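your task:
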Amino acid sequence: MIRPATREEYPHLVDIWLRASRQAHPFIDEACWRARADDMALRRLPACEVQVLEAGRRVIGFYAMHDDHLEALFVDPEVQSFGHGSGLMAHAMTGHSSITLWVYSRNVRAVSFYRRLGFSIVDEREDPETGEPESLMAWSR
């Protein structure tokens, strides 16, 4: 079931984000992710519309939208590769006629995932915090 997140769930969502980020981005120092955790909990998630995926009374993933921009899409690493990310994105896409997102260019798995969903790369930049190249991807109906 996909439903709106509650603020009480933010610590759990940050835990999912942190574990999934470390797994998906081995090219970024783990300390960088830990340093961003408070920002995620206190600034980024509260500024977004956050939806969670619940399975068996357990939150296993979430996405965060700020207007038509996907700020975050993360699934608990323990249950990845079962279509949960696709389900979350399908939910997000039904409520929007267009979506943009930034993804680390070296995260080939994520870039491929978004391409399969119809996103294309429209711009590139260097992430000011990490120095890593990022791709701006866009989708529209």
Notes: Helices lie at 10-24, 30-44, 84-94, 108-116. Residues 89 and 99 are 10 Å apart (CA to CA).
